[in-house]
Design brief:
By secondary structure, the chain is mainly alpha-helical. It is 80% helix and 0% strand.
């Protein structure tokens, strides 16, 4: 019985955290002057929550909720820098992939020229 109650409490806490992040995204994008739409920020935030949807251990879920609360507080109080927030988005990943593709294509051209 206590386990089910604890699971219900954790589920409520994670849902409340999701709701708080969703509401916070508008202010965060404006205050940190992020150059992408709020809908993209909310979609990325949703991906982070979906990434952990298969976690079933109550203690792990509780730890993730606590870390999420701390992170939300840091973002809201402007303790987190803009580049920290940008690290959660695919912009940096896509830049790395583009750089890797361009370097590979350069090397391919280089190797082809020497054959």
């Amino acid at each position: 019985y206590q386990r089910r109650v604890r699971e219900a409490v954790v589920s409520t806490q994670s849902t409340a955290l999701y709701r708080d992040y969703y509401r916070e995204m508008d202010w965060t994008c404006r205050s940190h002057m992020l150059d992408f739409p709020i809908s993209e920020a909310r979609a990325r935030m949703k991906q982070e929550f979906i990434k952990h949807k298969n976690v079933t251990d109550v203690r792990v879920i509780d730890m993730l909720v606590v870390k999420g609360r701390m992170q939300l507080e840091e973002i809201h109080n402007m303790w987190a820098q803009s580049y920290t927030i940008l690290s959660y988005f695919d912009h940096t990943d896509s830049q790395k992939k583009t750089a890797a593709k361009s370097s590979n294509s350069f090397l391919d051209k280089f190797y082809e020229s020497h054959d």
